[in-house]
Every structure is written in C-alpha cells, then in structure tokens.
Amino acid sequence: MKKHLLLAQAAPVTLAVVDLVKPGDLDRATPCAEWDVRALCAHLLEWGPPLEGAARKESVPPGDGSGDVRGQFERLAAGWSAPAAWEGMTVMATMELPADMVGGMVLAEFVLHGWDLARALDVPIAFPDDVLLLMYDEVARTADQGRAMGVYGPEVAVPADAPLFDRVLGLSGRTPG
User: Fold this and answer.
1) Which terminal Cβ of the chain has fewer Cβ within 10 Å, N or C?
2) Where would I find the beta strands (DSSP E) of the chain?
3) How much is the pTM?
4) Residue 143 domain-assigned (yes or no)
5) Sequence-separated (6 or more) residues with CB below 8 Å from residue 32
6) From CA 86, how far away is CA 128, in angstroms rounded?
7) Neighbour tally for 40: CB within 10 Å
8) What angle do CA 123, 29, 80 make, to 5 degrees?
9) Domain for residue 171, yes or no?
10) Count of domains in the chain?
11) Distance separating the N- and C-terminal Cα atoms of the chain
C-alpha cells in the first residue's frame, strides 16, 4: 500500500486519543523521558509546522509550542496525504532531506507519540498492521541517526515473536506495555 494512504489510516487512530486529552491530564507522565502530556503537546506543536511545510516542499520554522494539537495533526495528515509530498527532496526547517524520510518522521509523530499519549491517559491504542509494518521499516531505517540526535532511546530488547507494535516500540527505545 502507498505510504500516503497508510498515514491516512494512522491519523484517525491518533486523533481519537488526542480528543481524550483534557486540561486535567496535562501533568500526567508519558513514556517519553522528562515529558508530561503538556511537554509532549508542546513538542508536537513546535515541530508540526516544519513537518507540515515539508509536505509542501517549503521551509517553515518551528512553532512556539502552543496551539491546537488536533488541528496540527489534521494539517499534517492533510499535507502528507498527497502522494507528491512523499516524492523527491524536501526541506525540514532548513535542512534538505528525502521527502519519504520526512514522511516517515510524520508517521512516527502519529504512531509513536500517539502511543505515548495513550499510555499517559491509560487508554488502548491500535494501528493497522500495514501501518505498523511501514513504521517498523521507517524506525529501522533511521534508528541510528535518531539515537544520535536524541530522538530515540537505546533499543529495548523485545522477543522476535512479540506483537509487531511491541517490536516497533522497542526499536524506537520505548518499553512496550
């Protein structure tokens, strides 16, 4: 299946969790080291604009960390639902990168940070297997670079026969369950 269609499948799953976040949840801890829900939302709002701009092949500076998380996710999903967003090169803030690599980062925003929010709220989250297969490939492709940049933690050992989502999480440095 085409990557832009898989992102479109991931978006509503994450948006359903985003819709559950209430003001009283902002101080809840997430699986992300040193981030509560408020800090995770600020991260999403800071890096959402450059990722959104990258879908249009435009350089956009990071946001100020405030705003509407749902709206930001909707704009990301809309921008990256276009097949052309995944083609050629693009700009992430000021760095030129392969567009499909940045698209993989966007998918990670939905899948990994969707899971982070779900864990903080203690609600289940599940993505289609096709989405998780792509996510695993994307994390594997960028894991070393991500760890060097502090985006991913050290790989968490997960049994080879563990569910695919657990293997994705472990590869990204998250402890499943």
Assistant:
1) C
2) 89-92, 95-98
3) 0.95
4) no
5) 39, 40, 116
6) 20
7) 21
8) 65
9) no
10) 1
11) 28
